[in-house]
Specification:
Distance between the termini: 58 Å
Strand order of the largest sheet: 3-2-8-9-10-11-1-12
Order of helices and strands: EHEEEEHEEEHHEEEHEHHHHEEEEHHH
Strand content: 15-25%
Oligomer: single chain
Shape: globular
Number of strands: 16
Helix content: 25-40%
Number of domains: 2
């Protein structure tokens, strides 16, 4: 049973103490930092590595790092990487096999000890994405054991959203800027005339124990009210939104829509959207042998439904055209994901919009599909 603790406040030194306490406990801390003109996730050893005073300007196919006069650390949108990169690495060895002198084969599964991660500054959209990945990769009959080992040892410290980006649309997917569940600690950054501080909420016993080990003070009413107001205001400032229609029904009824060809004329099938997506989970496997043929390894690595070979069978790809591959991705994400896992597969983080080279915007495309369907229905079903 989770300990119910009062809210607390950390100052910037307390934030640093929190990260250092995690490192001292043997955890690998992964959080936002500035690298290569972007705010990316990387290993942290102190709060000094956080992106204080840096924000981002976003649009479809556009990302720009900007300075912030307020010195905020978490006033930025989700970057190009998600925590999926650590929970389910892009490339992972599953097992190896060796030919024995007697002529048999000895198989050795990969069972190395999972890292003890602390994910720091997890956005609410990424909290939801991790919960979706949990359902996909550990909730069925065929558990991804590597993911399960890493996830079971991961501690999540959320950072609530107070400044959504121009490509964010989490509210229209059923989420929002508040961290509602799934965290060990949740931080809300407050910068005002009273100073720079972080409201802390406890979500687990381990989170309570961690908070008790670092300098903090009991939260005051002003800080609580200011933090709550900032998160509530963010809900009304989303840069984008999916249309308020039954998306599951819309996608199923739009398989023959003309809009898919319009999208295909712009789509590069590069797979960027699936690589940056925090919920896309498709992988493939390959065997690699040495020159003697006495040793082989099976590796799992990320794959994408935009890859022409992704649906290849003995007579060739099932989805040869660009339109069919884009339709598969978007229809699965917003519609048939419900059939498999009981929910949508989109958390509205906006990464697929920001990091699409030609700037294809799924909120715009879904709205266009809705408009086409409405026009078609208005013509009595004629196309």
């Amino acid at each position: 049973m989770t300990t119910v603790a009062p809210t607390a406040v950390l100052d910037r030194d307390g934030l640093d103490s929190l990260i250092r306490a995690l490192v001292a406990r043997g955890r690998t801390v992964i959080g936002p930092t500035v690298r290569d003109d972007a705010i990316v996730l990387a290993e942290l050893t102190s709060a000094a590595q956080l992106p204080f005073g840096r924000g981002v300007e976003l649009d479809a196919g556009r990302y720009r790092l900007v300075s912030r006069p307020d010195g905020a650390a978490f006033a930025h949108s989700a970057g190009p990487r998600s925590f999926k990169s650590w929970l389910r690495p892009q490339r992972e060895r599953l097992w190896s096999a060796d030919r024995s002198p007697e002529g048999g084969v000895v198989y050795t599964p990969e069972r190395d000890e999972a890292p003890s991660y602390a994910f720091f500054g997890v956005r609410p959209c990424d909290l939801r994405a991790i919960a979706l990945q949990d359902r996909v990769l550990t909730g069925g009959r065929h558990e991804d054991t590597g993911y399960a080992r890493r996830r079971g040892r991961a501690l999540l410290i959320a950072a609530e959203c107070t400044e959504p980006g121009a490509t964010c649309f989490c509210v229209s997917t059923g989420g929002g800027p508040a961290a509602d569940a799934g965290f060990d600690l949740a931080l809300t950054e407050v910068v005002d005339d009273a100073g720079h501080r972080f409201l802390v909420r406890v979500g687990s016993d381990e989170g309570a124990e961690l908070l008790a080990a670092v300098p903090h003070r009991t939260a005051d009413l002003v800080t609580e009210a200011t933090a709550l107001a900032a998160v509530d205001a963010a809900r009304d400032r989303m840069g984008r939104a999916l249309p308020p229609v039954d998306l599951r029904d819309l996608m199923g009824a739009s398989l023959d829509a003309d809009r898919w060809d319009d999208i295909a004329a712009r789509c590069l099938t590069c797979g960027n959207c699936t690589m940056v997506c925090p919920t896309c989970f498709c992988v493939t496997t390959e065997e690699v042998t040495d020159l003697t043929g006495d040793h082989t390894e099976r590796w799992q690595h990320w794959d994408s439904c935009f890859d022409l070979d992704f649906s290849r069978l003995h007579e060739g790809p099932v989805r040869f055209s660009t339109s069919s591959r884009y339709r598969q991705w978007l229809t699965h994400k917003l519609s048939t994901w419900h059939d498999q896992f009981g929910s949508s597969g989109c958390v509205g983080c906006g990464r697929c919009v920001t990091w699409c080279p030609p700037g294809i915007d799924i909120t715009e495309e879904v709205a266009a599909l809705a408009a086409e369907r409405e026009a078609t229905d208005g013509d009595g079903g004629a196309r």
